[in-house]
Structures are given as C-alpha cells and as structure tokens.
Specification:
The protein is α/β, with parallel strands linked by helices and about 200 residues long. It has 9 helices and 5 strands. Helix content is about 55%, strand content about 10%.
Length: about 200
C-alpha cells in the first residue's frame, strides 16, 4: 500500500482537497484532528506533557486544558518546539497503525506540518496544495474571523509555501482559476497506477 502525504500552507485548502480524495474512496488520516485526540488518549504522551508542562495541564479525568497549554506555548518558541517534539512522534506512530489497518491501494495523510514534523520521511509520495498568499490570507481571515496580522503570524511559523511545494512530488493548484476536481481525478489515477505497479 502506498502512503501519500498531502500538505499546504494555512488557507491553501488542503483539507478541502483531501475531502475530494475521500469522496473517491481514499482513506484520509487528518493529522491535526488526530493529534487533538491523541493528547487525550495516548498514555505515554499524556505522561510526557505532564512531565514538561505540569500536572495542572490535565484535570483529574485526564482532560487537557488547551487554554492553559496554549498560554504556555504560543508566546514561547522553545516551549512550542518541545510540545511538537512530543506530539509529532505520537501522531506518526498513530498514523502508521491507522494506515496498516486500511485496505485501499493508497492512503492519504493530511498534515499542515508534514515537512516540519519529519513525518514526510515515512511516506512514499507527497502532494502539495498551493494557492497565492493574498487568497490564503483572505480565506483564513474569513474562516477564523481573525485579522490579517494574525494570519501572517501563523504563516511565519510554517515553511515558506514556495519551498514546501518544491519538496512535494505533485502540486494541486487551488487558486480559484484552475478547477480542482479534474486535478484530483488525474492525480488519483496516477496514484492508483503507482500503487498497482508497486
């Protein structure tokens, strides 16, 4: 089975593109959603987070206090890197276990930080979803009801989109000029053929 990553900068529309693949019957692992679940269920990760950020981060039922953790990490680059160094390996483990249970010719792992987290190393191919920065900024401002500066601050925490797209094997343009569905269908056929040849 082929393991394929799908990524893109904030506002690129990677989740929307991943959902089109899902409609075609491709199993999709949403890494960001999974990470939130894992932080509530993975005992080793819970123990590590408590160790580094304090027991108060979880209540007596091991429910994560996201606001408290957010206050610690969002204005401290080192603390954020530390948290990511705990969460990313747990998510990679979880996604590998998930992929092993699938029976489709290929699976997709949707993740914003595919390259930043190092999880691309465990994948056969990577798809990038690309959109011009002004359009991405507008999408996120509208979606999250935040200011332009808030969006730019989030963008600066990710690898530059041009670099990210060069690291990908395939690029889908989601610029509202080129139709996305035909691009997904063509790539789906390419990946099915690739999976059959392996």
């Amino acid at each position: 089975m082929l393991k394929v990553g799908i990524t893109g900068g904030i506002g690129s529309g990677k989740s929307t593109v991943a959902k089109i693949f899902a409609i075609l019957g491709v199993p999709v692992y949403y890494a960001d959603d999974a990470a939130k679940t894992i932080m509530q269920t993975d005992e080793l990760l819970i123990q590590q987070v408590k160790e580094h950020f304090g027991n108060h981060i979880y209540d007596s039922n091991n429910v994560l206090d996201r606001a408290a953790l957010g206050k610690i990490v969002f204005n401290d680059k080192d603390k954020l890197e530390l948290l990511n160094s705990l969460v990313h390996p747990a998510t990679i483990r979880h996604s590998d276990e998930w992929a092993d249970r699938q029976t489709a010719p290929y699976v997709l792992k949707e993740a914003a930080l595919l390259f930043e987290s190092g999880s691309f190393q465990y994948l056969d191919k990577c798809i990038g979803v690309s959109a011009p920065q002004p359009l991405r900024i507008l999408r996120v401002m509208k979606r999250d009801n935040v200011s332009r500066n808030d969006v730019l601050a989030r963008m600066y925490k990710q690898i530059d989109d041009n670099i990210k797209m060069k690291l990908c094997d395939y690029v889908i343009r989601n610029d509202e000029q080129e139709m996305v569905i035909p691009q997904v269908l063509a790539l789906h056929n390419t990946l099915l053929q690739l999976a059959a040849d392996n």
